[in-house]
Amino acid sequence: MNQKMKNHVVNLYMIALSDGHFAPEELETILKIGEEKGFTKEDFEKMIAQPGIEFYIPEEFMEKVKLLYDFVKVILSDEKIEDEEVRSFMRFCKKFGFEEEQSNALFEWLVELAKQDLPTEELEKEIKKQIQD
Questions:
Q1: Taking all residues of the chain, what is their mean pLDDT, rounded to a whole number?
Q2: pLDDT tens digits, residue range 61-118?
């Protein structure tokens, strides 16, 4: 298993738990994202069953945005955006070094992309497109 992708999927799980409510749709979305990254449901279960799991903060900008984007997909999986989920998103943006104003704009932009069902792999192209416009 690729450690970077393993951290990504475990981070999504930990973020999803952060609002105190873990909906079945959130689990389904995390499993789908895990599949896209080459993990099975059994791999995921093994990952979260391991003691000593820590939240990993990516160093690269693109990895941070991809993790936040996947988190937005988890947030939207139950078709409602809870205040606590938004607060969790903002906390993670702060941990990732984003300013509050940037975080608000990033959240809105990522929600729009997630509603369009943009695959995470296409996110980098979308960012480059926005920079060029």
A1: 87
A2: 999 999 999 999 999 988 888 888 899 899 989 999 999 999 999 999 999 999 999 9
CA 30 to chain centre: 9
CATH number of 3-132: 1.10.3680
**How many residues belong to the chain?**
133
Is there a contact between 76 and 111 (Cβ–Cβ < 8 Å)? yes
Question: What is the rounded CA–CA span in Å between residue 77 and residue 61?
Answer: 24
Q: Helices 24-36 and 61-76 sit at what angle, rounded to 10 degrees?
A: 140
CA distance 131 to 94: 22
The dihedral sign for the CA sequence 60, 30, 69, 118:
positive
* Helical H segments across 22-98, by residue range: 24-36, 41-49, 61-76, 83-95
Q: Are the CB atoms for 69 and 52 separated by under 8 Å?
A: no
